[in-house]
Design a protein that fits this description.
- This protein is of the alpha/beta class and 372 residues long.
- Helices cover 41% and strands 17% of the residues.
- The chain is built from 12 helices and 13 strands.
- It has helices at 8-19, 23-40, 78-102, 121-132, 155-159, 176-181, 188-200, 219-232, 261-277, 308-315, 347-352, 354-370, and strands at residues 49-56, 58-59, 71-72, 105-113, 142-146, 166-168, 206-212, 236-241, 281-286, 297-301, 320-323, 328-331, 339-342.
- A 9-stranded mixed sheet has the order 9-10-8-7-6-5-4-1-11, with helices on both faces. The protein has a two-stranded parallel sheet with strand order 2-3.
- The chain is globular and about 50 Å long.
Amino acid sequence: MLSLGFAPREVVHRLCLERDVDPLRANLVVEVAMLQREVLAPIAERQDLVSLYISIPFCPSRCVYCSFASHSLDKYRSAEREAYCLGLAHEISSLGSLLRQLGLKVCTCYIGGGTPTTLSPTQLSRLIADVRALPLWEKAFELTVEAGRPDTIDAEKLSVLPHDVRLSINPQSMHDETLAAIGRSHSVQAIREKYALARAMGFANINMDLIVGLPGEDADAVEHSLAEVLNLAPESVTLHMFSRKRASRFGGGDVWETMGDAEAYKASSRAHQMLRQHGLRPYYLYRQRAILAGLENIGWARLGKECLYNILIIGESQPVIGVGAGATSIFPLSSAPWERHANPKDAKMYLDRLPQLVADKGRLLSEWRSKL
C-alpha cells in the first residue's frame, strides 16, 4: 500500500478496518515497513545481489528451546569439526566460482548456527578469508557473526574477526537461574565480561538477543533482563517471543510452564517502551508457529545499525544462498511457487552429499538468474 502511494496513516486505518489488525500492531508494521523502504532503497532495483547464510552446527550444549541444526561438542570432536570446515570451504569456493560466472555479488553474509565461535581461531580465520574471497558488493558489504554463547568467546577468537563485523552476543536472559534451566553453562557475569572484552577490542556494532517467556520468568523478570542489556548499550536488540518448536527438547515433551498471554503482553509493551526510550527503532519483525500470545519477534536498532540481512531474509525479496548443514536457500521469483533448497541438518550426512548439494544449488541459482 505504501508503494501504491497510500499515506502511512491511511495504511494503518485500512489495516485496522479491512484486516482487523490491532491498532498497536498496525502502527508497528507500518513503522517497520517505512524504515525498511529507506534501508532497502540503495538495492531496490539491483538484480545482481544475493545474500549468504553460513551454518556452523556446533554448540557447547543444546538449549531446550532450540530447533536449529546443532551438534554437541562432546559428540563432534576436533577432527570431525575440521572435516566439516573443509567441506564448508569447498561449498563456499564452488559458490564463488558460480557467482562470478553469473555476474552476481554477495551483499550480506550471516554466519550463524549453532554457535560459530565454537570453531578454533584458525578455523574462524580461514572461514572469514573464504568469505572475503567471494565476489562482494563493494559499496556496503555487511557481515554478521553470531557469538551467541559467552562460554565460546575469548580474545584470540575475537582477534581474527574484522572490527567492522556485526557481532551478536546473545544472553537470552540476564538471570542465572534461567540460564541454568534452559541448558546454558555460563553466568550473567560472563555475558557482561565477554561484552566488555568485545568493546575493548574495538567492536562497534553489537547485537544482543532476549527471549520473552522462558521458564519461571514474568514481565518483571523480562524488564530486568532488558534493563541489564540496555545498560550495556548494544547497537541493536532482538526481542524474541518464546515459540514451542517441534524439533526442540520442549517440543519433544519436556514440561515447561509458559508465560500467560496477559503477562506476555505486559512484558512486550514494557519492552517496547524501554527500547524506544533508549533510542532504538523496530526495523524487522516476523511471527512463528505457536508463538507466545500471538505476538512477534522484533529486531530493534539504533539509526544506521539495522541488519540488512535480517530484512532481506524475512522479506524474501532477494536470493539467500545457504551453505553448511541445515542451511536453506531461497530463490524468489515473480510468481509462486518460489524455489527452495535445504541442506541436511546432520553434519556427516551433509558432507556425504556435498557434491550433489553443490550441483543442485548451482542449477537452481542459474535457473533463477535466467528467469530475470
